[in-house]
Amino acid sequence: MEKNCGDKISRRNFLKKISCIGLQMLFLPIFGRHGYGKSINSGFTPAYLKLHRSGELKERAEKLWKIMEKCQLCPRKCGVNRLKGMKGVCRAPGSKLVISAFHPHFGEERPLVGKRGSGTIFFTHCNLRCVFCQNWEISHIGRGTERSINDLADMMLFLQKIGCHNINLVTPTHYSPHILKALDVAVEKGLTLPLVYNTSGWERLEILKVLDGIVDIYLPDIKYWESSMSSKYSSGAETYPEITKEAVLEMHRQVGTAKPAKDGIIYRGLIIRHLVMPNNVAGSEKIMEWIAKVLPKDTYVNIMAQYTPLYKAFDYPEISRRITKEEYVKVVNKAKELGLSNLDIQGYWWLR
User: Fold this and answer.
1) Which phi and psi angles does 301 have, rounded to 5°?
2) How many domains does the structure of the chain reveal?
3) What is the value of pTM for the model shown?
4) Is 210 within the bounds of a domain?
5) Which residue segment(s) compose the domain that 123 sits in?
6) pLDDT tens-digit readout, 221-238
7) What is the pLDDT of residue 142?
8) Mean of the per-residue pLDDT values for the chain?
9) Within 32-175, where are the H helices?
10) SS3 content of the chain, % helix, strand, coil (to 5)
11) Which of 71, 138, 141, 213 has the most other CB atoms within 10 Å of its CB?
12) Which residues face 300 on adjacent strands?
């Protein structure tokens, strides 16, 4: 083969290209040649298309980017100048974008996973910094690779190309400016998948209002009922219960109740996650009562049973074990008694 001396490529770009090719070779056989790249639901129109066409999506991205000059993207409102490389509580490296991984994920809620997976993009660092985080290498240490805005846009397009049902942004809060910039680029190149905002739930109303008309599916946690618990286990986040409740109501106002389409996939709406913790640290029954009182009874609520003591959890005896079957069943029964009718109940026969 004749060598083209003028066609030079950096080692970094070469490795990125090889990595992308490797992912395609890996996932193509899984999805099948005939289904590869097919539109998932031609009748669905993502919320962000209208804003992209009017130019408002780009304007909102710039608005969020400027907030990093005195960062107040999350409720901590550190006020550090991330545009000059300063780090706040989340420990994100200034305005740099660091991503841990991107791939189809089959461990999410069934209406998000479908047959082809949820197209997850895992962002590094986190503003909540829980002591029991199962992804602590990513959220606390920041294990990942620095990427550009265009790289992030290409990831979205790649996940669409291999047939994922959505773009699932995991821990997006402190990278929301980067996400909106990349989204604008990706839409210009043909992105049409629903956008999932997969968050701890601790979100500022002011930022959520910027996301109105952009996010299709909100996927927040409601972790704690009492501020004493959120402060103790999530790095002093004593405002978590109050702010998260306000945030969830705003999310519901924007996207409504999540209901599967005819194909079984959710394209729009609110999905709430709640992790049952040992010794009722989370205040699970109180949370179920609040959901039943202020939201429709058919609100999608995933009652999660997979709490595992990881990272620094063993420094706190009350959360240093798995939950019991009795603890999980008690929360499920409470939710049913309250009339919550759209519960995602996990198999609890394996709980001790």
Assistant:
1) -125, 120
2) 1
3) 0.89
4) yes
5) 44-345
6) 999 999 999 999 999 999
7) 87
8) 90
9) 48-54, 56-67, 110-113, 136-139, 149-161
10) 40, 15, 45
11) 71
12) 271
Q: Fill in the amino acid letter for 230.
A: S
Burial state string for 35-48 with b = 16 or more CB within 10 A and e = fewer than 16 = ebeeebeeebebbb
- Spatial distance between the Cα atoms of 90 and 3, rounded to a whole number of angstroms: 47
pLDDT at 185 over 90: yes
The label of the residue with tokens 């003591």 reads: 309
Please indicate, yes or no, if residue 351 is contained in any of the structural domains.
no
- In terms of DSSP bridges, do strands 97-105 and 145-147 run parallel, antiparallel, or are they unpaired? antiparallel
Strand partners, 217: 196, 269
Instruction: Kindly state the tokens that stand for 294.
Output: 């202020």
The residue behind tokens 């985080």 is 133
Q: What is the mean pLDDT of residues 118-133?
A: 96
CB 305 within 8 A of CB 253: no
From CA 332, how far away is CA 329, in angstroms rounded?
Answer: 5
Helix axes 325-337, 284-294, angle to 10 degrees: 20
Backbone angles phi, psi at 194, to 5 degrees: -65, 145
Cα–Cα nearest to 140, from 234, 68, 76: 234
Token couple for 126: 């986190």
